[in-house]
């Protein structure tokens, strides 16, 4: 730590401009102190005209830590000569920390701008990846830290000179904001620019403001960006007005559009004696066009509806004076409807804290203020009394059903396949309403019929806002360590899960993230993130941060695009300016893609996954909302690296001569590649095959690593070349190209990074931006490169075909090469390239392109691959028979029986993984193929008998949940309360068949038995017309078998409607009538079903029984299914 530096410039507390005062250099070696004392020449930089002294030049520091975070035994304080502003920052500077004094006296009830006086010398903007500016100041009792990023493009604008012609000058007179100018290249001299930072400061007191500048340069390129000179810092109340006529004033605009609550354009709205408005809550419309902001100013609270892309205020109004936590806001998809829900109403639960709840009980009940509004987006007139509101119009109550009057539960607008709905949840019932024209009930889903008191606080929280995506709602069950997925479109509980840690269970409703289509959910733990399929709760990916430096903890997660997620991290032992880090992860590859610069310590971005090529994000400030390009807030980004590729990366001259070479890396390691031959045994015969041998030696020519690749006769090596300072080895074969990452130290190993199939002899190169380029002829180089970090989205077909050719090398390879091939395919096992969705997945592609001549090597590879402990293939829950890899390979068996050996490898993997993880999703490929597997005419029907025995005992996951919520299926028994099911315990039946329900099971001491519980699916009996995985859905079987008896059905509907309108309030009479209807229906169902079959009337999905022989039916699972029916 002795060579690390912090530069801290305290202020004098006068005027808001930094005083030229003392500076401490921490841990600077004595040999560098002279560099600090020696000033730069005057002619290199323009000095301040107000008497500023010569600038100090910083020593060559490493990335720094704050003095409060240095270990006591490593911190050395060495006072040196004072360094005054201005300060020159060079490429050796990584961090610069300044203390800016607060204005004296501070102006209360206003917001401040931070302005930096900046000049440059020999600035090379292309060398700078980003300048990160972090500001920390106190707002009340909390210290907030916000970050903003200056990209190279923005840096060019901030440092450019405006050239105005006469017409431009005429247009700019009187209004700086309407200035029309042309940005030219850098001027021959560097004037002192005034950079106004984007982040505003609100509520400054006597505490100073901490400001840190971080400089990041591109990896692998020159880090010399010239110099940037910081002349002064200022804190102003209105910098735009102060510098109105200054042509060197620049506002940092790291956004596409921004919304400032205190600059609406209406003087009546902006003038507020209570002080500037602050954001207390916000919600974005489903089409991403509008954002509703709840603002607080003193004791007043306002609602403002803004157009995001136009930064235009659409509507506004003032709410009653109250604590903002008592309200919830719902905005329709197009922003045309608004619902303000009073959560503190007398008829519902409250989100308030305990002390607020106590005060509520002491006071008299207050009138519920829940209101429904329509938005007139064309209304732009500003009324004289702006507090009365503008643009919001009360909804016609005649169009509302009476159950919505006085609503005081959590709710949300949500779009499903049947249009937009209004969804409410009180922890007991999920209610769905139509919103087109008149509002009316659409569906009511009872989450737990044994409870009738809403549990708003502990159960619902923010689940409707965060976890309602697609058709699914993920919510934690109250009273149980269990989380459930509800399908609001079909009105059923889809699945449940209990194997979450305590912190994950607490984070489900508030901190989890669900993908746009509802298929994935990411749940953070303290030091990890787990990603599940919401339909089945199959673990898709697990990423741990425990091994990372400084041991960060997860703070928030957010899905963006292509199944990638942003994870914001919290560093407990790092200074505030290093808390703004996060990562973007690929859920499929379980790999880190890029680093993300979060906008602050306490907030996170709403990321829009709709823009796949250029995803956007909304960042929330104190009083501003800004729409960013997500790529502008990332570093170490493969996308931005590819954008830096220019003509030089694709020029013909840049392609090296392709041949076996010797090279020396910057680390001193020496590499050598040469051809040879090696004896091998193929099918019992001794042969000699060509071998490519790569050796790594140290400076003394002592070998430390060796890579030997045996090539079959069908592949021959065209060239092998070390490129990009020996960072990669390119092996060009006649059918494919391989890219290996070379060792960088004696302890490092070769790593296979990319394999692509090729059809023509090609010269290859890897540019410094990690892009692979090929040159077929001197007249036509390949224009589009393939990223080494994310190849599947850039070269889908070549990537898949390359994996299909790897068995040719795997068969005769040594253990090192085989392990690298296994890891390479395993990392991409669950990937699929754009345009092919699931059919483009690796397993499907291999099965579809199976060939008899490569069967032996393919079988050898996939046996080793699926048996490897780090490889995990996950069938998608949306898989159908068209995209089933097992069915694809079974089609090959008709022509060649050898192909069934590969099918058996897949079957054994699915059965083994299903039992190991107790997850029936892994059986989906098999169950969809039982129709073919059980066919006695097929050559592999005998293998089905063994398969059915393996499927007989599939252990059930979440045994405790099944024991707590089940219904026992048993033969009909006549007892005196014949309209009620028998409530006997598990001890009364020999072979119990359990059906999972939403109702709680009555605790019975006899139910505590230790035997295992197994699962069985009706897909073992028949093939259904729909291919969804409904067999594993958990819902009450009695509700599922209702529609047939029309008279009784009418009675049932009347009872349910009455209950929905709370006429009977769920009385026992209603339950008795329902049970009686069910009993009568079950008794008379068989003759009615036979008659309807004769009339060809189908009420259910059609099924086709598997062509089993009688011997195959002697199976415990099949017997249980038949007995259950």
Sheet-strand content, in percent, reads: 25-35%
Structural class: alpha+beta
Number of helices: 25
- Lateral strand order in the biggest sheet: 4-2-1-6-14-8-9
Low-confidence stretches: 1-83, 163-190, 345-364, 383-388, 834-838, 1027-1067
Helical content band: 10-25%
Q: How many runs of DSSP E, i.e. beta strands?
A: 63
Mean pLDDT: 74
- What's the shape? flat
Largest sheet: 7 strands, mixed
Whole-angstrom Rg: 34 Å
- Distance from first to last alpha carbon: 73 Å
What does this protein look like?
Helices cover 19% and strands 30% of the residues. It is of the alpha+beta class and 1125 residues long. Among the domains are: 7-254, no CATH class; 259-339 and 346-400, no CATH class; 409-542, Lipocalin; 545-644; 969-984 and 1018-1124, no CATH class. The strands form 16 sheets. Strands 4-2-1-6-14-8-9 form a seven-stranded mixed sheet. Strands 3, 5, 7, 12, 13, 15 and 16 form a seven-stranded mixed sheet that branches. α15 runs parallel beside α17. The model is unreliable at 1-83, 163-190, 345-364, 383-388, 834-838 and 1027-1067 (pLDDT under 50).
Blueprint of the fold:
Elements: E1 7-9, E2 24-26, H1 33-37, E3 56-57, E4 77-78, E5 87-90, E6 95-100, E7 111-121, E8 128-139, E9 142-150, H2 152-158, E10 162-163, H3 166-172, E11 182-183, E12 193-196, E13 201-202, E14 209-217, E15 227-236, H4 239-242, E16 249-251, E17 257-260, H5 267-270, E18 278-284, E19 290-297, E20 300-307, E21 312-319, E22 327-331, E23 337-342, H6 354-362, E24 371-375, E25 392-394, E26 410-416, E27 419-425, E28 429-434, E29 440-446, H7 456-460, H8 463-466, E30 468-469, E31 472-477, E32 482-487, E33 492-497, H9 502-507, E34 513-514, E35 520-524, E36 528-533, E37 539-544, E38 553-559, E39 564-570, E40 581-586, E41 591-597, E42 606-608, E43 616-620, E44 624-629, E45 634-635, H10 638-643, H11 647-650, E46 662-664, E47 670-682, E48 685-697, E49 703-710, E50 717-723, E51 728-733, E52 736-741, E53 751-757, E54 763-766, E55 771-777, E56 780-781, E57 786-787, H12 796-810, H13 815-827, H14 842-848, H15 855-867, H16 885-893, H17 899-917, H18 924-927, H19 930-933, H20 941-951, E58 954-955, H21 959-964, E59 966-969, ...
Parallel strand pairs: 1-6, 3-5, 12-16
Antiparallel strand pairs: 1-2, 2-4, 5-15, 6-14, 7-12, 7-13, 7-15, 8-9, 8-14, 10-11, 17-44, 18-19, 19-20, 20-21, 22-23, 23-24, 24-25, 26-27, 27-28, 28-29, 30-31, 31-32, 32-33, 34-35, 35-36, 36-37, 38-39, 39-40, 40-41, 41-45, 42-43, 43-44, 46-47, 47-48, 48-49, 50-51, 51-52, 52-53, 54-55, 55-56, ...
Helix pairs in contact: 12-15, 14-16, 15-17, 16-17, 23-24
């Amino acid at each position: 730590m002795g060579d690390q530096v912090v530069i801290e410039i305290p202020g004098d507390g006068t005027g808001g401009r930094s005083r030229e005062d003392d500076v401490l250099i921490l841990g600077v070696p004595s040999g560098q102190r002279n560099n600090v004392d020696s000033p730069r020449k005057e002619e290199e930089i323009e000095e301040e005209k107000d008497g500023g002294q010569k600038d100090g030049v910083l020593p060559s520091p490493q990335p720094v830590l704050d003095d409060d975070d240095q270990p006591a035994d490593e911190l050395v304080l060495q006072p040196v000569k004072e360094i005054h502003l201005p300060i020159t920052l060079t490429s050796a500077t990584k961090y610069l920390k300044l203390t800016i004094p607060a204005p004296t006296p501070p102006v209360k009830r206003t917001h401040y701008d931070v302005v930096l006086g900046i000049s440059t010398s020999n600035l090379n903007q292309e060398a700078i990846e980003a300048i990160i500016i972090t500001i920390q100041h106190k707002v009340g009792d909390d210290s907030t830290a916000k970050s903003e990023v200056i990209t190279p493009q923005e840096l060019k604008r901030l440092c450019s000179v405006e050239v105005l012609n006469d017409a431009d000058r005429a247009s700019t007179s009187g209004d700086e904001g309407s200035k029309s100018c042309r940005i030219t290249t850098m001027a021959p001299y560097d004037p002192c620019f005034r950079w106004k930072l984007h982040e505003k400061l609100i509520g400054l007191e006597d505490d100073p403001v901490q400001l840190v500048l971080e400089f990041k340069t591109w990896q692998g390129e020159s880090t010399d960006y010239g110099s940037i000179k910081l002349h002064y810092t200022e804190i102003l109340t209105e910098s735009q007005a102060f510098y109105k006529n200054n042509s060197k004033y620049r506002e940092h605009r790291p956004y596409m559009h921004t919304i400032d609550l205190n600059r609406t354009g209406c003087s009546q709205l902006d003038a507020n004696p209570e002080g500037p408005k602050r954001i207390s809550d916000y919600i974005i419309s489903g089409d991403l066009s509008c954002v509703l902001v709840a603002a607080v100013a003193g004791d007043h609270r306002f609602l403002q509806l803004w157009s995001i892309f136009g930064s235009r205020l659409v509507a506004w109004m003032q709410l009653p004076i109250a604590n903002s936590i008592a309200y919830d806001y719902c905005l329709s998809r197009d922003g045309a409807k608004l619902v303000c829900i009073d959560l503190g109403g007398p008829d519902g639960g409250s989100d308030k804290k305990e002390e607020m709840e106590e005060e509520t009980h002491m006071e008299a009940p207050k009138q519920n203020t829940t209101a429904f509004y329509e938005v007139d987006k064309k209304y732009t007139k500003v009324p004289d009394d702006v507090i009365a509101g503008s643009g919001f119009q009360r909804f016609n109550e005649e169009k509302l059903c009476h159950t919505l009057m006085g609503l005081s539960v959590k709710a949300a607008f949500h779009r499903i396949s049947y249009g937009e709905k209004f969804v409410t949840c009180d922890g007991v019932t999920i209610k769905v309403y139509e919103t087109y024209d008149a509002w009316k009930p659409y569906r009511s889903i009872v989450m737990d019929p044994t409870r009738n008191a809403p549990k708003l606080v502990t159960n619902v929280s923010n689940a409707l806002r965060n976890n309602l995506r697609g058709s699914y709602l993920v919510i934690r069950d109250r009273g149980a360590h269990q989380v459930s997925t509800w399908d609001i479109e079909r009105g059923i509980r889809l699945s449940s899960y209990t194997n979450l840690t305590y912190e994950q269970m607490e984070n489900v409703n508030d901190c989890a993230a669900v993908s746009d289509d509802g298929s994935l959910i990411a749940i953070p733990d303290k030091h990890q993130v787990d990603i599940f399929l919401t339909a089945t709760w199959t673990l898709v990916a697990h990423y741990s941060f425990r091994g990372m430096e400084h041991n960060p903890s997860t703070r928030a997660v957010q899905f963006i695009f292509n199944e990638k997620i942003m994870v914001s991290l919290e560093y407990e032992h790092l200074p505030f300016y290093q808390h703004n880090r996060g990562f973007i992860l690929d859920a499929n590859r379980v790999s880190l893609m890029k680093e993300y610069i979060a906008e602050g310590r306490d907030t996170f971005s709403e990321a829009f996954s709709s823009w796949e090529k250029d995803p956007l994000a909304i960042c929330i400030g104190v009083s501003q909302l800004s729409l960013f390009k997500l790529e502008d807030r990332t570093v170490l980004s493969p996308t931005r690296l590819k954008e830096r590729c220019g003509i030089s990366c694709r020029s013909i001259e840049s392609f090296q001569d392709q041949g076996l070479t010797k090279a020396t890396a910057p680390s001193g390691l020496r590499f050598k590649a040469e051809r040879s031959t090696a004896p091998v045994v193929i099918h019992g015969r001794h042969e000699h095959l060509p071998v490519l041998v790569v050796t790594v030696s140290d400076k003394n020519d002592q070998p430390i690593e060796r890579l030997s690749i045996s090539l079959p006769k069908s592949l021959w090596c065209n060239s092998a070349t070390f490129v990009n300072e020996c960072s990669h080895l390119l092996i060009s074969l006649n059918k494919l190209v391989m890219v290996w990452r070379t060792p960088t130290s004696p302890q490092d190993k070769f790593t296979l990074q990319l394999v692509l199939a090729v059809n023509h002899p090609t010269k290859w190169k890897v540019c410094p931006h990690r892009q692979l380029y090929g040159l077929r002829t001197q007249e036509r180089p390949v224009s589009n490169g393939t990223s080494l970090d994310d190849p599947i989205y850039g070269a889908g077909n070549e990537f898949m075909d390359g994996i299909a050719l790897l068995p040719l090398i795997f068969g005769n390879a040594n253990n090192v090469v085989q392990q690298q091939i296994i890891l390479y395919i395993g990392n991409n096992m669950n990937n699929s390239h754009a345009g092919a969705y699931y059919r483009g997945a690796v397993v499907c592609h291999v099965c579809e392109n199976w060939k008899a001549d490569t069967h032996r090597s393919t079988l050898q590879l996939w046996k080793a691959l699926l048996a490897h402990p780090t490889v995990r293939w996950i069938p998608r829950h949306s898989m159908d028979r068209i995209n089933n890899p097992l069915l694809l390979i079974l089609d090959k068996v008709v022509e060649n029986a050898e192909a069934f050996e590969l099918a058996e490898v897949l079957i054994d993997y699915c059965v083994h993984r299903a039992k190991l993880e107790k997850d029936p999703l892994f059986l989906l490929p098999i169950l969809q193929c039982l129709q073919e597997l059980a066919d006695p005419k097929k050559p592999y029907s005998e293998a089905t008998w063994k398969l059915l025995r393996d499927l007989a005992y599939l252990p059930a996951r979440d045994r405790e949940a099944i024991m707590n919520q089940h219904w026992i299926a048993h033969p009909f028994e006549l007892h005196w309360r014949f309209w009620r099911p028998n409530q006997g315990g598990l001890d009364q039946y020999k072979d119990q068949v359990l059906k999972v329900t939403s109702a709680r099971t009555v605790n019975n001491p006899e139910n505590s038995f230790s035997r295992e519980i197994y699962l069985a699916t009706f897909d073992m009996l028949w093939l259904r017309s729909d291919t969804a995985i409904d067999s594993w859905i958990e819902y009450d079987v009695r509700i599922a078998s209702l529609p047939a008896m029309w008279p009784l059905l009418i009675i049932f509907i009347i009872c349910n409607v009455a209950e929905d309108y709370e006429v009977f309030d769920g009385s026992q009479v209603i339950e008795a009538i329902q049970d009686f209807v069910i009993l009568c229906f079950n008794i008379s169902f068989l003759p009615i079903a036979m008659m309807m079959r004769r009339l060809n009337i189908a009420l259910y999905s059609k099924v086709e029984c598997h062509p089993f022989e009688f011997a195959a039916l002697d199976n415990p699972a099949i017997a249980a299914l038949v007995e259950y029916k």
